[in-house]
Amino acid sequence: MSFLIDSSIMITSQVLFFGFGWLFFMRQLFKDYEVRQYVVQVIFSVTFAFSCTMFELIIFEILGVLNSSSRYFHWKMNLCVILLILVFMVPFYIGYFIVSNIRLLHKQRLLFSCLLWLTFMYFFWKLGDPFPILSPKHGILSIEQLISRVGVIGVTLMALLSGFGAVNCPYTYMSYFLRNVTDADILALERRLLQTMDMIISKKKRMAMARRTMFQKGEVHNKPSRFWGMIKSVATSAPGSENLTLIQQEVDALEELSRQLFLETADLYATKERIEYSKTFKGKYFNFLGYFFSIYCVWKIFMATINIVFDRVGKTDPVTRGIEITVNYLGIQFDVKFWSQHISFILVGIIIVTSIRGLLITLTKFFYAISSSKSSNVIVLLLAQIMGMYFVSSVLLIRMSMPLEYRTIITEVLGELQFNFYHRWFDVIFLVSALSSILFLYLAHKQAPEKHMAP
Amino acid sequence: MASLDRVKVLVLGDSGVGKSSLVHLLCQNQVLGNPSWTVGCSVDVRVHDYKEGTPEEKTYYIELWDVGGSVGSASSVKSTRAVFYNSVNGIILVHDLTNKKSSQNLYRWSLEALNRDLAPTGVLVTNGDYDREQFADNQIPLLVIGTKLDQIHETKRHEVLTRIAFLAEDFNAEEINLDCTNPRYLAAGSSNAVKLSRFFDKVVEKRYFLRESNQIAGFPDRKRFGGGTFKSLHYD
Q1: I need a labelling partner for A312 at 20 to 30 A (CA). Which of A170, A176, A454, B130 fits?
Q2: How does it assemble (chain B) (predicted)?
Q3: How deeply is A323 buried, as exposed, middle or buried, from its count of CB atoms within 10 A (0-12, 13-18, 19+)?
């Protein structure tokens, strides 16, 4: 009986998450595009719903809500469904939509998308070989095999995003790094841009007039691909077409220049807006946060290095350590069990909420930057895949932040994964990502002012 | 020969509707083989005979400024785009017949372009919401072009074209529906070519011949039903 009640609670919450994912998709991601394939929207919302349910189960674990056997059952079921979606459905649909974009392969869409999916599965399987992920006593298609590989990809993604985010956050928040941009700079660039456009226009006018006179004289102005056309052009030596190709090359160079100028001007406008924003109250608040985050970032890089160099993995979670310190050194006595439950709930809850929110915001920004009306379906599915893998590996890593008695369910359900390996892998990729982001941002920052010095 | 008078026409629309293909077709009478993303603005020039066939025939250069991007771009990109909207003599609004959102976004596109030029007349500008009064007062000739006509199935053609007819009426503009990969839609003598020619003539007139009149802002032109040409939904 209690199983039924628990299941109905779980299903209601899943429906709620599904609705939230649906709304997010419609209002935020696809607000400038038209949804023509509802399959994409459904897949995205389903992935989101099942990922959030996993987090919800962790919270329930800590709080002790619901029957423990029904929790275990729902864990297993949730994991199976999510793995099914991430390994079978989403890659297949990604292949299908990529293939439908290519005009040549339109007729045999299904065949080619199956081929693409088989290639994906092959590489996905090969991914497990170089990593000491799990003991080889399990069957081919068990949950552990799939989760281990999904976990590797997801942890890599998390570490990359974390590393880049940890470095980028202080860089964008702090106004120390803002280049000084005046209105005069912007006006000068705009003038150059318009001058370039004028030059392009005058060259195109000459080309258009030349084409028109050639057309009126009855010449064929296409490339002489026919035999007679070639003979004729040799005999009469039409200078018009040769001039045209020369002018066309000049126009191509000028167009490239105009594109560069356009992007630089947009960059300057963005910087100017940021300067104005930094003078407001909110801007000053973020500037202060930026200093705080830069210290946090440096500390994290330091800790990652220490972990790797000294090959150490933390045994106890921060909550228990904090309580130990408080009890032993500060002499404050309180009910350890009660407080550890609540504090870990709050801590884990904060981690979950910020990581979901951060990921959705990053995904939205990414989507706006690179999508166009043709590729929007493929990109959204890729984002759904990334989101699913990210959340699955969050569950793997969050195990570290929880006290021992709550870790058991994750260990039970996920089987005999080498959790320590994932933490080590996270540290390595985080370090690599953070250091390369620092290098990249340094180079980009250095290069920018030099561009404006050019006359 | 480069001393002909010139006229500037903007080509606006969402990304991916076919503006670059359209401009290429209009200016070079050829289909664009490999369309790629337009960054910033690309310009092309068409030579147009004003009042062709009459004794007052004169040749003009029509500059078609194809501005890339989407309506939801960051405001820094919008400010950069605004530099192209100066002294515009005509606007071609391009939308995709298979994509309803692209035709809805045309209102926002036209507001973005027109707001640059509307400032001196003191017309009240609402927050980007569509306001018919602004378009009634507008001096700049508009033309609405719908692309990818070949991808619309026969059975749905009628409802799509009806919807587009309403859209064009809102802008007080002519409409052309075509497929940019097929030059026959703009073949000389077809009704599309005639509409295009009429539009360019109107643009040239407004720029060079009708400077003094119509500067009185204040009496918005109400829609006149039954007056003027009744739109018939035929296509070549």
Answers
A1: A170
A2: Homodimer. Interacts with GPR89; the interaction stabilizes GPR89. Interacts with RAP1GDS1.
A3: buried
